[in-house]
Amino acid sequence: MAGQTSVSDLKKQRRRRDVVQGINIFLFLLPGLLLFVSILIAPIAVSVYRSMYDWNGFSEGTFIGLENYKELFTNGSIKFMVSLKNSLILAAFSVFVQLPMSLGLALILGRKPKGERFYLTVFFMPVLISTVVIGQLWLKIYNPDYGLLNTLLGVLHLDSWKHVWVGEVKTALGSIIVPTIWQYVGYHMLLMYAGVKGVSPDLREAAMLDGATAGQVDRYIVIPIIKPIIRVSVIFAVTGSLKTYDLVRILTEGGPFQTTEVPSTLLENMLFLRNRYGMGSTISVMLIILCFAFALLITAAFKEKET
Amino acid sequence: MKEIKQSKAMKFDTTYVPKGSNPVAKTIIYILLIIWSVINIFPIYFMFTFSLKSNEEIFGLNVAGLPRDWLWSNYASAMGTGNMGLYFVNSILVTGASIAISLIAALMATYAITRIKWRGSKLTNAFFMLGLTIPIQASIVPVYVVLSKLHWLNKYSTLIVPYSAFALSMAILICTGFMVEIPYDLDEAARIDGCGLWRTFFKIILPLMKPAYSTIGVYSYLQCWNEFMFANVFISDSQHRTLPVGIKALSGQHTTDWGPIGAALVIATFPTLIIYIILCKRIQESFIAGAVKG
Amino acid sequence: MKKRLVSVLLAGVMALSLAACGESTAPADTTAPATEAPAAEEKKEEAPAAEEKKEEAPAADATADAGEALTLNMWCIATESDSNRHSYEEAIKEMAANHPEITLNWEAFENQSYKTKIKAAVSANEMPDIFFTWSCAFLGDFVDAGKVYCLDDAYKNYASELPEVMMGNSTYGGKHYGVPLTMNIVGLFANMDLLKEAGYDEIPGTYEEFIKCCDALKAKNIIPFGCAGKETWCVTEYLESVIEKSVGADALNDIFLGRATWDNADVGAAVDEFQKLVTNGYFDPSGAGLTNDEVKANFMAGKYAFYMNGTWNCADFAANADFKDKVKVSEFPVINADKAKLGQLIGGPSDTLAVAASSPNAEKAADYTFELGKLICHYGYLDGCGLPAWTPYGDTSTINPLTQAVSEICAKADSYVLFGDTAMSADDANTYLSYVDQVYGCQVDGTKFIQGLAKDIR
Fold first, then answer.
1. CATH for C42-184+349-398, options being 3.40.50.150, 3.40.190.10, 1.10.3720.10, 3.40.50.1970
2. For residue C58, is the peptide bond before it cis, meaning its omega torsion is within 30 degrees of 0?
3. How far apart are CA C417 and CA C173, in angstroms?
4. Among A233, B25, C143, C263, which residue has the fewest nearby CB atoms (within 10 Å)?
């Protein structure tokens, strides 16, 4: 009798402990979940729902199914395809120009040159500057009449190279790409540098003793080890390009002739210039889909290479 | 990233020096490093000099040289009509509060995920990691609508709450990296001593997580300090503007007067840069720790 | 004498019908009884002060009798840097003296963020009692949502000073919802010094000569037009004038107000004509990357011969000691005389004050808004910020010569077409601006422009 009660007591006790622990877990997660769900998850669910409405933000909306998605691609004044193309160009430059630069710098600094600390500090500096400041600064560099760039070209007697950098179709996108790359080379460099520093010196030492050059050590030992970091960098660079907003808003406002629009600037136009909250939601949903698609693609690509 | 962790990274004092690399390549490498340094420093120098010049100097022949007359009045007008002082304080308030909130929420959530055994922990972690890929813009429409319906625009908390939420995923990722390295025996010992989950969290885990604070701080700072889209959309009165929005507004008023804009840019940038240069070793190590542990 | 002339001419303007948004407004009445207007004007001028007093005293008494202190809130866009700031301050000071029982709390916001703010306030039903708005489509959205107080009752007391035609842009379904302040048109501003260099003493009056003048300027290495490509509305100031002077005011107005389709071959041809100005290199190529403030500064610095923009610039131009003697204003010449003629202008009253339906004191706020609007209009006109929507009173001789020249152009006006981006709803206006941008960038031609707009405007 006594033994039985103690078993059921134990069960009860355990159940009570489970409940208490459940409550505790919930309480620990609560602040994070509250923030995360209310600011990220719920709004996205609402976005998906609203993307099927024609809605101006203050009146009742009308359900129009997938019309917004269709209009996104057919309306000649919305320029979604252009914005997508620009984002992809930006992503390509990030992955194929910026990241190799970062990797190169990280590998060089990994070899402990003189003044390593100084270079590290200097290269990371632009990351800390607000993008808005960088935009304003480069606006002054690009100014067609008094800007640093055109003045410099004038001094070098290269007047034919002068451009209205942010105002010409040919150069506008490029003038956004350059500061973007410039600013974040340091960010990715430091990430990769962390990886490079993590390679055990013994491993390097051993390879060198076997007669490998510094280049070969980097190629065959360091890069394979820091591959996970490179993957993270690629994901950040690509999704970051899809999210570009600040520099476009400040340097070109999407112009000239809407050739430098990116999804985020279109999104803002929909909300505040056109009163089309439904269409704005549609663009949000497209952005999320794209970001996830690319993240999965990149992960898959890296897996493929590994096997 | 397992290998890296095991190899006990981050030793700046290793005595490894490349041997046998040829001197020509070495020179080229140094030249490259110096060129890239100049490219990184020059825009900052340019910003500083034109913040002290009059339009005549900037538009004239002295484009890139040191200012002839040091026009400190540009700073007076950036602080006065430009209100940069207020915006700076606003930015600090918003960024500071966001870092604090995301840090607390992340520590608590990570504790529940990594140090309590329960079935949904892996799934919950994956759920939080969604935030790393979701673009911040995606939620701007509904959040804006809700906030405006709640009359919650134009307050500090209007920005603090979303910023904390967006910094959360990264913070949890970094926290996890640090927290799994704390030996689990400690929890066990605490439990035997009669400590509950909360006391274990406050008395044992939080003190041991101290190195993580600065790492999370650096990452959250990078996200919040520079954020422009939410700040631009959610804040329309000048009382609560943050630096990025303030600079945009100021440059709208002074399109043809570069000096005060330059001054505003310097005010927005130099304090951060100076702090960075003083603490650069610590900040870099924190950042690197994040990369390795994440 | 000059004062009299301007007043007489303005009276003529008032009599003209303005193109309006509401379907209920009367058709253009171009045969105004010109003889009556000056007479009425004369009377007013004789005793402006007396009339003013008469008008405000009863209102003040009525509220004073009620004996209750009242606080009203107002939002507007007259920020410190806005050229209208001074007229708001003066008008509010005078209102405070006339109505000590009413306290007005007013806040000014920067133009672009104000648009966001007021929309948010409307959707949250948290509007101030009185708010600044643009007429036609912008206010129309709020009226449709039932958020704006109808001003019909209050308007009766002011109808003698505020002509019905000036209310057209804020009239919806036959009801009045807004108090207009100033009106503006697009003017062709010219730097006469530069024109002289090219051998012209006057702004050319015909389109052929105008083109010749541009060629002559180009030959002298002077850029004919300055236009801010970063702000598309600046492009429309040129494009809309070209279209109007090609197809006529009525045709363009019908299109803007959705009564006719964009798919109109004449409009297409006019757009091609505009594009020819672009491809001929008359526009400053670096303008594409500049804002309007920068272009305006360039124009005042003598970089361009012509600058087409709103007549609100008159005050700034006249205030610049170096520039004021060089600049003249004129009307864009006629391109197709079969369909268009001089006197067809782009513009109209757009700056408006409205009263929120949610205001607990809407009735009193309505009266207050009319009186305030009248004073803002008065001081704004004296400052040269635009032409008055209200019948002017008092001494107007101090007004700058540029604004007076604009008054003379308006006095001869035949009809007005409101700025396209104000006339259309926000979405349509931006679709339109997007296509204008593409035309300016020579990415689409006239045919594609009209077809695209016919398809994409909903």
1. 3.40.190.10
2. no
3. 20
4. B25
Domain boundary assignment for chain C: 42-184+349-398, 185-347+422-457
Decide if C327 contacts C189 (C-beta within 8 A).
Answer: yes
pTM of the shown model: 0.78
- Nearest chain B Cα to A57, which residue? B145
- Residue appearing with tokens 């009308």: A62
Asked if residues C400 and C185 have their Cβ atoms less than 8 Å apart, the reply is: no
Q: Do C122 and A75 touch (CB under 8 A)?
A: no
Distance, CA of B165 to CA of B172 (rounded, Å) = 11
In sequence order, which residues have a C-beta less than 8 Å from that of residue B2 and are 6 or more positions away? Answer: none
User: Residue C182 and residue A104: Cα distance in Å, rounded?
Assistant: 62
Is residue C231 within 8 angstroms of chain B, CB to CB? no
Residue A33 amino acid letter: L
Which of A64, A72, A74, A77 best tests the C interface by mutation, with the highest count of C CBs <10 A? A77
Q: Which helix (H) or strand (E) element contains residue C87? A: helix C85-98
Cross-strand partners of A265: none
- Residue A8: closest CA among A16, A19, A24: A16
Rounded to the nearest angstrom, the gap between the alpha carbon of residue A283 and the centroid of all alpha carbons in its chain is 17
φ/ψ (deg, to 5) at B16: -75, 125
Strands, DSSP E only, in chain B? Answer: none
Nearest to A164 among C289, C432, C456 (CB): C289
Contact check, Cβ <8 Å, C113/B256:
no
| CB-based contact B137 A263, cutoff 8 Å | yes
Backbone angles phi, psi at C416, to 5 degrees: -120, 145
Distances, alpha carbon C328 to alpha carbons A169, A236, B122, C139, in Å: 34, 56, 74, 34
Q: Does C456 touch chain A (CB under 8 A)?
A: yes
Interface check for C297 against chain B (CB to CB < 8 A): the answer is yes
For residue A7, is pLDDT > 80?
no
**pLDDT-based confidence at A246, cuts 50/70/90?**
confident
Position B289 scores a pLDDT of 81
To the nearest whole percent, how much of chain A has pLDDT over 90? 24
pLDDT at residue C38 above 60? Answer: no
First to last CA, chain C: 51
Q: What is the per-residue pLDDT for C395?
A: 78
Name the superfamily (CATH) of residues C185-347+422-457: Periplasmic binding protein-like II (3.40.190.10)
Q: Indicate the helix (H) or strand (E) that contains B135.
A: none
Beta bridge partners of C18: none
- Residues with Cβ within 8 Å of residue C41, at least 6 apart in sequence: C7, C8, C10, C11, C391
Task: Decide if C123 and B153 are in contact by the 8 Å CB cutoff.
Answer: no
Give the pair of three-digit tokens for residue B153: 């625009």
